């Protein structure tokens, strides 16, 4: 559905030689499985690393492993999957817990929902990897949507909160849906892009930014102004229908079409536009300059720099990244920076391309810092400390 075999024809100035493939597929003779083995192997290393951390902590602290997997949002998704939405749980959008519930129904009796969620997320992550590796062999505009080298995979899979990619969190499902939507749009598949973007809207708040980026990307394949407008409106309309469906679902279940928004009213928020801006320099009274806050601030500004750089290369993707980052200002703090940034895979792929050009000692330093930070955050999650 998404590949080049059924994509819209390229205009004369967009056509590429038949022997040329998308950036990141080098060389074209490499098979899918040869390309897939690198990120899949890295994922296996990541899973073993995190499991080793959690088994050690389980033995040392006497905390059952299944309890470690059921911290923070995971516990909320477990409750929704087994008992349904209610009260403040409407803050969490419905698609992911519905998928957890479906996965749980397929599992043997007695499997905890957080384990079913971990299975779902890990499978979704593998499918995301397979999709991106497949797209590396497409002919067409896949810049920044596929990695040019293995560093892009490392930066994505060893992002600070990458434990969310294989536990009961929305990250992997959102990665799969957003990558599919953006890749479909980049190949001119407006219907596919719009429907997939609509599913993103049901998964995370950032889904609306995926919809906008997809609508802009699909215009790149158009041959005329009228065609560009038609493609943009098609993707936008399908995505908006998904959003209206979400509002209708919430209204039918609670009587309030904005139940999700209202359920988040008790969360931390900026009190004004100036309060949102002051977030950048710890200017709000509820912010602190502890080590964790400094790390999240630093992570935010690194991602912001990368988003601005991508804006110069491919504006729809730059806009997607910028909106996904700047929306955090509405919280008045960057307490979720690791999670918000962890799904912005174009930033990781772009950074990987740039990292490869740096001296070996610099790359080694990046590896040490990221692995250490990843281990620290993964450990904190298992112990029930804030790790988002």
UniProtKB/TrEMBL annotation:
Membrane-spanning ranges: 36-57, 77-96, 117-138, 231-252, 294-311, 318-338, 358-377
UniProt KW keywords: Membrane, Transmembrane, Transmembrane helix
Annotated protein name in UniProt: Uncharacterized protein
């Amino acid at each position: 559905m998404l590949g080049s075999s059924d994509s819209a024809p390229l205009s004369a100035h967009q056509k590429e030689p038949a022997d040329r493939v998308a950036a990141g597929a080098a060389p074209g003779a490499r098979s899918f499985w040869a390309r897939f083995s690198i990120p899949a192997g890295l994922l296996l290393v990541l899973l073993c690393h995190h499991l080793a951390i959690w088994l050690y902590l389980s033995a040392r602290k006497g905390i059952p492993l299944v309890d470690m997997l059921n911290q923070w949002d995971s516990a909320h998704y477990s409750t929704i999957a087994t008992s349904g939405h209610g009260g403040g749980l409407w803050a969490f959008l419905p698609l992911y817990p519905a998928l957890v519930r479906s996965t749980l129904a397929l599992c043997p009796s007695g499997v905890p929902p957080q384990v079913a969620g971990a299975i779902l997320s890990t499978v979704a992550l593998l499918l995301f990897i397979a999709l991106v590796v497949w797209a590396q062999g497409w002919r067409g505009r896949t810049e920044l949507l596929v990695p040019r080298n293995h560093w892009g995979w490392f930066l994505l899979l060893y992002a600070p909160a990458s434990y969310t990619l294989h536990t009961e969190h929305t990250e992997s499902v959102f990665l799969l849906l957003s990558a599919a939507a953006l890749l479909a749009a980049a190949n001119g598949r407006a219907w596919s892009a719009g429907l997939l973007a609509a599913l993103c809207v049901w998964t995370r708040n950032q889904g609306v930014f995926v919809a906008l980026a997809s609508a802009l990307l699909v215009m790149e394949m158009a041959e005329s102004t009228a065609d560009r407008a038609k493609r943009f409106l098609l993707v936008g309309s399908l995505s908006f229908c998904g959003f209206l469906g979400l509002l209708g679902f919430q209204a039918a279940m609670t009587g309030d079409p904005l139940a999700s928004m209202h359920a988040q009213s008790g969360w931390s928020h900026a009190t004004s536009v100036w309060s949102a801006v002051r977030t950048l320099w710890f200017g709000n009274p509820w912010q602190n300059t502890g080590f964790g806050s400094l790390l999240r601030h630093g992570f935010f500004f690194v991602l912001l720099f990368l988003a601005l750089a991508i804006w110069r290369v491919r504006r729809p993707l730059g806009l997607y990244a910028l909106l996904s980052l700047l929306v955090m200002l509405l919280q008045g703090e960057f307490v979720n920076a690791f999670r918000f940034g962890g799904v912005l895979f174009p930033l990781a792929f772009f950074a990987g391309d740039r990292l490869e050009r740096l001296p070996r000692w610099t790359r080694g330093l990046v590896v040490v810092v990221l692995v250490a930070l990843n281990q620290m955050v993964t450990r904190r999650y298992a112990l029930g400390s804030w790790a988002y």
